[in-house]
Amino acid sequence: MPEKQKQSRKFTNVFDYIDWRGDLSFESAPVCEVDGLIFSILSYVDYGGFVPSEIHGVRKPLALLTVTKRFLKSHSGGDVPAMGLILSKEIVKLLAKASKTKRFGLISPICYVNKVCDEEEKQFSAIAFSFENGDTFIAYRGTDDTLVGWKENFNMSFIYPVPAQKEAVRFLEYVASKTSGRIYLGGHSKGGNLAVYAGVKASPAVKARIERIYSNDAPGFDAEFICGSDYRDMQERIKTFLPQSSVVGMLLEHEESYTVIKSRSSGLLQHNGFSWEVLGSHFIYLDSISEGSRIIDKGMKKVLSELSKEERERFVDTLFESVSEKTGAKTLTELNSEKMKLFKVWNALDEVSKAQFRRIAGILIVRKNQEKKKEKKYIGDGKNGKKSR
């Protein structure tokens, strides 16, 4: 591609991909990594009341186009559920656009579950999409707006497995028992972690049907998990994608090779899949993560290595108990509206917890300053990942 064309190439993302490939069925053009991200994003929609929680083989499932029409009609003029503080309203826009295409509109969402339990400290949601050729894509939702979901994320640093990971395996086994054909798994953020965990821990018969697992900027696992033979056996089928300044995706361990991709945003905002640059059926690849991301990776691993599992548990429990007690919030949206009460949360923490917070904040500040100092410009060719300055 000539240099002039490189410079003038406009930003393209999943919406442009749908415009480009929406008229092709999955039979004509098999599932690719961009499809994996789209399904993963669509898992954030609340399909309750529109998609059954059990698979009934006696009646033909509704197509995504029909489900979407009913969903949008029921929410016309009001707020759509499952958005909250951290989730982009572009998710519903993506659902509406994808459902009108031949590629996505004719597939059928056949099973949807959403389980949030404060007592079990569990936040789990997943949806299964059935293709016309009999294949299935299971998309696991990442962390939503609920505080219990965020606590479960923190719990991953000292509990193995967390309740959502167990649910992920059960959901996969259930869907597999009701379907035939190949299985694709995917998720964004914690959803990517659940997709990998489910695929690795599935029964041998189900594993044999898994074609690919797409993990999009998801936290990793502890050393015990990634050193296991089950993980190594599935490693070649796991595709892990991280934006260049990934924060979430660099948490815990990543033994598998990962692909670094270009995002038009910076810092934590790169976690938003709508900011990921797409060229054809691929993301735009880069050579490596940013220096700031490396700083967080090394710093967070150092902090965790210096804390026992008991100390990590105490820190997480103290933090979330203080938030609950001082604010009464159940979601990040509610917590954001109680900003003044966050000072009370800070004052309620013991000195050990405050010191740990300061260390983590220090890592983030150093990373931010490092990225401000010099930001590299990357240009990818959509396949091999080329870099220029």
Low-confidence stretches: 1-8, 374-389
The largest β sheet comes out as: 8 strands, mixed
Distance between the termini: 17 Å
User: What is Rg?
Assistant: 21 Å
Fraction of residues in helix: 40-55%
Strand content: 5-15%
SSE topology string: HHHHHHEEEHHEHHEHHEEEEEHHHHH
Strand line-up of the largest beta sheet: 1-2-3-4-5-6-7-10
Overall geometric form: globular
SS-derived structural category: alpha/beta
CATH architecture verdict of the largest domain: 3-Layer(aba) Sandwich
Q: Give the domain tally.
A: 2
Q: Please identify the top-level CATH class of the largest domain.
A: Alpha Beta
The name CATH uses for the topology of the largest domain is Rossmann fold
- Mean pLDDT over all positions: 81
Give a written overview of the molecule.
- This protein is of the alpha/beta class and 389 residues long.
- It folds into two domains: 3-289, 3-Layer(aba) Sandwich (Rossmann fold), CATH 3.40.50; 297-370, no CATH class.
- It has 17 helices and ten strands.
- It has an eight-stranded mixed sheet with strand order 1-2-3-4-5-6-7-10, with helices on both faces. A two-stranded antiparallel ribbon has the order 8-9.
- It is globular, with a radius of gyration of 21 Å.
